[in-house]
Amino acid sequence: MNLKTELRPLILIALVAFVVFANSLGGDFVYDDNRQILRNPLIQDSSLYGKALVSDVWAFKGDGTIAASNYYRPTFVAWLILNFKIFGISPFGWHLSNLLLHIGVCLLCFLLLRRWNVSQNTAFAISLIFAVHPVHTESVAWISGSPDLLFALSFLGSLWFADKWAAGKKSLDLIFAIALYAVSLGAKEVALLCVPVYFLIFAERNKTAEKSDKTKNFLDSSVNSTAIFGAIAALFFLTRWAVLGKITQPVEDATNFSNAILTVPAVFVFYVKQMFLPLVQGVNYPLRPVTEIGFANFILPLIISLAIIAALGFACRNSFLRKIGAALFLLPLLPVLNAASFPFDQIVHDRYLYLPLFGLLIIVFSLLEDLLKRHFAEKADGIILGLAILLSIPLSIQTYFYNQTWKNDFALWSHNAKIDPTSANTFVNYGAELSNTGRPGEAVEAFSRSIKNRPNALAYMGRARNLMALKRTDEALADLQTVIKMPPENLNAYTLYQSYETLALIYSNTGNLAKAEESLREARNRLPIYAAALTEKLAVVLYQKGDKATALRELEAAKQKAKTELLPESKTVLLRLGMLYAELGRKPEAKAVLQEYLNLTANLKDNISLNDRQQAVNLLRSLQ
Asked: By C-alpha distance, which of 271, 434, 283 is closest to 353?
């Protein structure tokens, strides 16, 4: 393959991908971005980088001592650290880095296909459709969708070097293949299941070598070569196990295993439909776990699924390329077919189709090319190219408009409220955005809709906050008590923390400081991972009661804990301590602790932290 002859299609693919996703560059931080980036000290504080790389992705939700999710993704975390170093809280740079990753994947798709002897027009057609397909919007336009991009880029890069090594046996190629596979494992756990792709490559290359009398037993050689990558996967699996403390954490509000098994055909058919007919896109879709077997929700999807698998087996039986395509299509999909791995109303997401789409396109266009060459040999390349261009136009338009949905949280969740009106999760997020835009009455309606769809702690807590803003105190207190009394297995620790915080605030606002203090002490006993953050709120209540001495003792006792807790509000203990020292005339101590607070929060960029820092700066100036 001569790169000079491939330069024109590569440039065209890059340009088209950039143009189609260019309007995503003006987007804001949305959804998980607001916490994973703006309120995540693990990626902001250089002294915590080591901890960040040996913790799960959501460790910052607690005190960093326990896993808060099933996601150990050091490559993704390193990517967040790098982007924060370069771009800070400017979303444009983050969006640009996502788009560049996507362009890189598109170019690598083309180059890999050419390496596998796919004709230039067919390779271009596959890469073009891949570049503009709307199911990629969630991965490209959403900053926190980058794990799929990082995984695809590093895994396909690993396949490139693995193929080179299998053909030429140069040690450097093997080193690069292993290194990139390790990077892909750190980007997304699904890479664990992709080891068989290496076997397909090695078997094909060794089979060719056998015909040239270079290798006597291609099967043994292929298995041995693949075992290298299997060993890397096993090492990562053990590392992940050590970091998380268990193979898998329980998922809040997930369906049971038997229902998950029944749901597999429906999920599989949904994903195939979404790749062929992406007529509707959203964060969540109105697909729920199967709880009772019926024709539409189980029997028909099962028949369709079996037909698709049979067709794939028949199509791939004599084609190395289509076997590769089938592996890239099916292997990354396997873990996301398990509905028990996700909350009840979030069992399918477009981002899981990022690499599988490439595999499916390989199969479809390879079959089309074979068919056309049998019947229209001279026109086959032109037909394939024309068809790809024709298909890319409506797909590009769909992608362009869907990108705009990801511009901000309000656009995203108001859109999804129409796509999935039965989702509790959608209306929790929609209610939060209505609240953020100063519309508490509408927010209460959205949270009530969420509870009606499926009772959940976040909705009760969110509704309570907005009822408080509307001065409907008794209703707010009832919602918060509902959350606090929920069984621990149905309750996220951070949601419980927020509920106690709101409960204490209501009691304080209504003059019942004794109840506020009682609530915060109860919360601190139940939630030791948030001890410092809760102590800061307790100290404020004690101060309001006029008990400055106890407030001071509480703050001083929590000082060291405040330095290690990961919630940004935990550091506020030092601010409150500095303010109290200043009021008591202990200026040297006040100046020291305020400066310590400013040092510890130097990288925090959320609005609350910025306002608190300004208070600290102003107080320090007054003490000079």
From this structure: 271
